[in-house]
Design brief:
Shape: globular
Oligomer: single chain
Number of helices: 9
Radius of gyration: 26 Å
Length: 334
C-alpha cells in the first residue's frame, strides 16, 4: 500500500512529470501531498502531444517549478532560489515532523539516462542510451549505442586500477562523474545566477550530439546495408567513445569558465576596454526579498546611520569632480 512518504517522495515526482505533458493532474494534488491516499492518480496518462527525446531529457531536469511543490521561493531556498534541500528527507522540530521535497532532479544522483529504442532500425543502431553522470539537471547526456564494444575511458572505472579515474572517495579530473559534480556543486552555490549558464551549455552540447549522432547512424546504416556489420559496430563505438570523452573535457572547461565568472560573489567578464584589469566586475548582491528577510530577522543590527555633514561634503566633492569613486575590484593587485 502507498504510504504518506511514498506519495510525497515518490508519487509526487511522477505527478510532476505527468503534469508537464498531460492535462487533468490537479485533482490528484491531495494524493501526492500525502493528504488523501485513496485518491490514487492513474498509472499512465495521454500526453497532449508527441514527446521528443529532448523533451524527455529536460523533463528530468525539473525541480517541480511552478507547482505546489515548488520550493525555490521559501526561506530554505536561501538568497539564490535553490531548488535543493540537503538530506535527510524528513526532520523534526519541537515534536513535529517536516519534509524536504524530493524533486525530480536530485543532487545525490549517481547517474541518469534516457533510453531510445527504435525497432525499425538495424540492431546495431536502434538502441542508444543517452547517459549522464550525477544530477540530471546539470549533466549532459552522451549517446552510448547498445552495440559498442568499448566503454569511454573517462566514464569507466578501469578494472583493477582505481587511480586512473578515481572513485567515490578519490577525485579525478579525468572522471565524468567528478567533472559533472564540479559543475553541479558550483551551480548549487548561486543557483539563480549560475544555472542559466549551465542550462545554455547543456542545450547547445546536446543539440550538437543530436546532429552528430544522426550522421553517425547514417554511416552505420550504409555499412549494414552493405553487409559490413562489424564495421558498423566499430564506427558507432568510435563515435560514442570519442564523443563521451570529449564531453568531459568540454565540461571541465565550462567549470573553469564559471569559476572565473562567479568567484568571490561577483560576476567578472572580459572587457578589453578597461585598462586597469581587462575586465568588468559586477557586484550582484542579493535580491530584495532576501534583504527584506535580513531586516525582518535582525532589525536595526545592520542599519547604517548617516553622518549627514560628512556625507554632504563627500557628495559635493564627487559632484565637483575633485574625487572619483573607484571600485577596488577594478584595480590590478587589489
Amino acid at each position: 500500500p502507498v504510504t504518506v512518504s511514498g506519495a510525497r517522495f515518490c508519487e509526487a515526482r511522477v505527478w510532476s512529470l505527468y503534469r508537464r505533458f498531460a492535462d487533468g493532474m490537479m485533482p490528484y494534488l491531495d494524493y501526492v501531498q500525502g493528504q488523501n491516499l485513496s485518491n490514487r492518480m492513474p498509472w499512465s496518462v495521454q500526453p497532449r502531444e508527441k514527446i521528443s527525446l529532448n523533451d524527455t531529457m529536460w523533463a528530468f531536469r525539473q525541480h517541480n517549478e511552478g507547482s505546489w511543490f515548488d520550493n525555490t521561493k521559501d526561506v530554505g531556498a536561501a538568497a539564490f532560489s535553490s531548488p535543493y534541500r540537503w538530506r535527510p528527507l524528513t526532520w523534526e522540530l519541537e515534536g513535529t515532523r517536516y519534509v524536504n521535497e524530493r524533486t525530480v532532479a536530485a543532487q545525490q544522483t549517481g547517474w541518469n539516462f534516457v533510453a531510445q529504442a527504435r525497432a525499425w532500425l538495424p540492431d546495431e543502431i536502434g538502441a542508444v542510451t543517452w547517459f549522464g553522470a550525477d544530477d540530471a539537471a546539470t549533466s549532459v547526456h552522451v549517446p552510448i549505442y547498445a552495440s559498442i564494444t568499448r566503454i569511454p575511458s573517462k566514464w569507466a572505472l578501469p578494472k583493477g586500477d582505481k587511480t586512473l579515474n578515481g572513485d567515490v572517495t578519490k577525485f579525478s579530473f579525468d572522471s565524468a562523474f567528478w567533472v559533472m559534480n564540479m559543475v553541479a556543486n558550483l551551480a548549487y552555490t548561486r543557483w539563480r545566477d549560475i544555472y542559466p549558464y549551465v542550462a545554455e551549455e547543456l542545450a547547445a552540447t546536446e543539440e550538437e550530439y543530436f546532429a552528430s549522432s544522426a550522421q553517425a547512424e547514417k554511416t552505420a546504416i550504409a555499412l549494414v546495408s552493405n553487409g559490413q556489420h562489424a564495421d558498423a559496430v566499430e564506427h558507432l563505438t568510435q563515435y560514442s567513445v570519442t564523443t563521451a570523452n570529449e564531453c568531459v573535457s568540454r565540461f571541465l572547461d565550462l567549470w573553469q569558465r564559471l569559476f572565473v565568472i562567479f568567484r568571490d560573489g561577483s560576476v567578472t567578464t572580459e572587457n578589453t576596454e578597461n585598462p586597469s584589469c581587462g575586465c568588468s566586475v559586477k557586484a550582484t548582491g542579493y535580491p530584495n526579498n532576501w534583504y527584506h528577510r535580513i531586516v525582518e530577522d535582525t532589525g536595526d543590527h545592520y542599519k547604517m546611520y548617516p553622518d549627514s555633514a560628512l556625507e554632504a561634503e563627500d557628495e559635493k566633492a564627487i559632484a565637483s569632480g575633485r574625487f572619483r569613486v573607484i571600485n577596488k575590484l577594478d584595480v590590478r593587485g587589489v
